[in-house]
Amino acid sequence: MIAGDVSGEDDYKRFKEAGIDAYNINTGKECHLESNLIERTLDKMDLDGIGFIFIENVGNLVCPADFPLGTDVRMVVISVTEGDDMVRKHPMIFNSSDVAVLNKVDLAGYMEVDVEVLRADYSKLVGNRPLYLTSVKTGEGIEAVMKAIGASK
User: Fold this and answer.
1) For tag attachment on the chain, is the N or C end more exposed, with fewer CB atoms within 10 Å?
2) pLDDT tens digits along 88-144
3) Which contacts of 6-11 are long-range, i.e. CB under 8 A and separated by 24 or more positions?
4) Region for 45 from its dihedrals, namely left if φ exceeds 0, alpha if ψ lies in -120 to 50, beta otherwise
5) How far apart are alpha carbons 148 and 128 in whole angstroms?
6) 98 in Cβ contact with 145 (< 8 Å)
């Protein structure tokens, strides 16, 4: 796991505490990771036996859309806590992603977020590709996402 943030190690520490081999990249003032940062991190890793590397880009939906990292699959994850207008506000990241995930669907009612609005906006933008609905807390939809990115059979 490569965790990217402007500063800090919060996500990196969470990955390590979960037993995941993780690396942290801080960009300083940049709002996205760039391929040279990934390359330098890969140079530090023992790649033998690794079947999958996840890269968590800096947590915004604007800058990362313009900076591909050479990944096989590009996934965008949003949360219902961000509102049901996220697809309309950030079309570039959804257009440039192979897989889109709406997480925390178990909170949609509490947040007064209409999941069907998000689905309709996504469908208008990208056609038939599914918007995967998940809840990391309950496990809902996780297996389908893992299959979509080729990490599970």
Assistant:
1) C
2) 999 999 999 999 999 999 999 999 999 999 999 999 999 999 999 999 999 999 999
3) 6/30, 6/31, 6/58, 11/56
4) beta
5) 14
6) no
Task: Please name the residue that has the structure tokens 């977020």.
Answer: 113
The predicted-structure confidence for 41-64, as pLDDT tens digits, reads as follows: 999 999 998 989 999 999 789 999
Dist. CA 101–CA 117, nearest whole Å = 14
DSSP structure class, residue 49: T
Q: Enter the tokens of residue 65.
A: 């859309």
Both structure tokens of 144: 């389908």
Amino acid type, 107: L
Using DSSP's 3-state secondary structure scheme, residue 103 falls into strand
Contact status, residue 83 vs residue 115, Cβ threshold 8 Å = no
Identify the DSSP state of 55: E
Distances (CA, A) of 11 to 104, 125, 153: 18, 30, 27
The separation between the first and the last C-alpha atoms of the chain, rounded to the nearest angstrom, is 20
